[in-house]
Amino acid sequence: MNDERLTEIYRRHSRDLLGFLSGFTAGNRSSAEDLLQETMIRAWRHIDVLPAGAERTRRWLFTVARNVAIDSIRRKQVRPSEVGLSDRYEPGPDETSATVLAVESLRRAIGDLSLPHRRVLAELYVRGRSPGEVARQLGVPVGTVKSRAHYALRSLRTAVDSR
Fold first, then answer.
1. Is the pLDDT of residue 83 over 70?
2. CA–CA dist 61, 159 (Å, integer)
3. Domain 2-78 has CATH 3.30.70
4. No. of H helices and E strands in the chain?
């Protein structure tokens, strides 16, 4: 019975939901289909409490779809962009030299940082600790850890860009 109801819900509302979700994905059909799939999974998980009646079900689905889309947008804003590299990538001589120079510039810039800034970066990025863990370890507020990391990274960017 529940499978039939979900099949009917999908048949009746999927096209409109897909169009609605496309607006959140700048027309990227694949991303919109992923959001639609997540919406339908949530409908399946809550099939027993879905409102009765086509219009009430439709409103519920569009609310869920909107929330799924907003969650997806927020996740993408927090997560850094993914960059794919070819499996056969081999840097040429010019790229190797540039990499060596960039690494040396970064090494010097790190050496120019104050000890508190270097320590925060090492704890966060080398040891993989959270800001809360670093704050407890150093005996400073979490905000201090975050601001030290921010200013240290900004200083590194400026130093590397200017060399």
1. no
2. 51
3. no
4. 7, 0
